[in-house]
Design a protein that fits this description.
Length: about 500
């Protein structure tokens, strides 16, 4: 088949690349068909090698990136329907605009590769492709406010064996070796020796699972937790007429099996959507009933007046029965357009979630003391996917607590992807992670990424679990993304030296 016509582009090939991108979502949760994403990415590189110009290369990368990001992020559109903010039509437009922005980055990467790589059969080209695609993944997770949602490495979140490398080389390092595998697949039918060379880093990293874990610490006490998943519909969550009913539902689940030996009850994000400082029947009920719980963690919209200005925070509270609010964490990583509007004065429109107000950003994550020997790192919603947020307090925490409200996204792939990213975080930190969601998926995740208990999406219920916390001092916890930065630096140096050598030969 002739891919390109003589004087103009063959739109079929761009459509083909779009399809490759669209079907790449099958490699991520909940499908976990990781080989499809790997093969599709390799096929896109193969098409890139056949392009005749940098312009063609850009559009090839653009359409692949457009399909890829749209299929992975389509669930964002559901929130527009649920919040009654333009419905699916405006939701699809929003996802399309976000996908176009990310696709332009991908197109620019393909443009850059085509500009430098004249012969795709060279080892230099292989190294350069890995270099560019790895940096693209990192950029998408770090530019502006950062959105490290489902990078290539997250295709490996489906088992504790494939999750293990996150504990050593992190998210971007794992993407780096995954792109090496992709480029190896690209060379499989070109130069077989390059295939074996390029897959070595991936094989070495994945083989690290056989190395026995060391520096394991156990807490001397056992904590019994109760996770409460109320499954309150998003449309009813903020209605004044439903507040009393919703809070009664939370307490009914909290007391459903008795409180014997329950040390900590955890509710989801914004589970208390009213001002508990104001005198009302609902707030009075909350205060009276919460005293029956030894300790309660709940999400709350907190107001704080500073310099005659009212700041509003999406917060997590730890409340003990014998004292007032023991600890507070204000959300640091806010969702753009959902919790605040970037460049609001310029854009001049409100966020899509309830209320015209925007949330204020917290200063840092503050660790919480649950008991004498148990310290928790509180994480609200998608803070769980940002492992490098500054931490204040005792940095030797031995538990991760993530409260979230994924009710915005209905029965889409979004909550499953969020759970997958939570498993990655547990492995990176080498700590047990408790995840409590309004509509699901609530879960207890072990330090190795194994899901010990969970509640189905769109269901209500509780999880009771006795936990003896185990902490693994992972290499990632100690060195962060050092592997990625070192690998990229080495590749960059190799590329510079190669280009210098080639230039010297041309000058002779």
């Amino acid at each position: 088949m002739t891919i390109y016509k003589k004087n103009f582009y063959n739109l079929d090939i761009f459509f083909y690349c779009l399809i490759l991108g669209l079907t790449s979502c099958l490699g991520f949760a909940p499908f976990n068909l990781f080989f499809i994403t790997l093969i599709n990415t390799a096929l896109s590189i193969n098409l890139l090698s056949k392009t005749r110009s940098k312009k063609e290369a850009f559009f090839l990368g653009f359409f692949f990136g457009l399909g890829y990001h749209f299929s992975v992020l389509y669930w964002i559109s559901v929130s527009f329907e649920i919040s009654n903010t333009g419905g699916y039509f405006f939701g699809i437009i929003a996802v399309l605009l976000l996908s176009i922005f990310l696709a332009i980055l991908h197109g620019a990467g393909f443009f850059f590769i085509k500009n430098i790589c004249k012969d795709f059969n060279l080892l230099f080209s292989a190294i350069f492709i890995i270099f560019v695609l790895s940096i693209l993944d990192w950029l998408k997770g770090n530019i502006l406010w950062g959105f490290p949602w489902m990078p290539l490495s997250s295709i490996w979140s489906f088992s504790k064996i494939t999750l293990h490398p996150f504990s050593t080389i992190g998210t971007w390092g794992y993407s780096f070796v995954s792109y090496a595998l992709v480029v190896g697949i690209f060379f499989l039918f070109r130069r077989i020796k390059f295939f074996f060379i390029l897959t070595v880093p991936f094989l070495i990293v994945t083989a690290s699972i056989i190395i026995p874990l060391n520096n394991i610490e156990e807490t001397p006490e056992i904590i019994k937790v109760r996770l409460v998943q109320p499954n309150i519909e998003q449309k009813n969550k903020w209605k004044n007429s439903m507040l009393k009913n919703n809070i009664e539902k939370l307490f009914a689940l909290s007391f459903s099996k008795g409180l014997e030996d329950i040390d900590l009850v955890i509710w989801p994000e914004t589970s208390v959507p009213f001002d508990i400082k104001k005198k009302s029947i609902t707030s009075q009920t909350f205060h009276e009933k919460s005293k029956k719980l030894k300790s309660l963690i709940f999400g709350f919209v907190r107001k704080d007046s500073k310099d005659e200005k009212t700041e509003i925070y999406n917060s997590l509270f730890l409340k003990n029965s014998d004292e007032n609010y023991h600890s507070i964490h204000d959300k640091v990583k806010l969702v753009p357009f959902g919790e605040f509007i970037p460049f609001q004065k310029l854009l001049n429109f409100n966020k899509i979630t309830e209320g015209s107000f925007g949330f204020s950003e917290g200063e840092a994550i503050r660790t919480m003391r649950i008991s004498e020997n148990i310290f928790a790192l509180p994480l609200i919603c998608y803070e769980v996917i940002f492992p490098n947020i500054p931490v204040v307090g005792n940095n030797k925490y031995n538990l991760l607590i993530n409260i979230t409200n994924d009710g915005w996204y209905g029965n889409s792939t979004g909550p499953y992807q969020h759970l997958a990213l939570s498993r990655i975080r547990a492995v990176q930190e080498g700590r047990l992670l408790i995840r409590v969601a309004n509509t699901g998926i609530s879960a207890i995740i072990n330090y190795d990424g194994k899901v010990l208990s969970k509640l189905r999406l769109a269901s209500k219920g509780i999880i009771d679990k006795k936990l003896k916390l185990i902490v693994v001092n992972t290499l990632y916890k100690k060195y962060g993304e050092s592997f990625f930065y070192l690998s990229i630096s080495i590749l960059g140096l190799i590329l510079v030296l190669y280009k210098k050598e080639r230039q010297e030969k041309l000058d002779v």
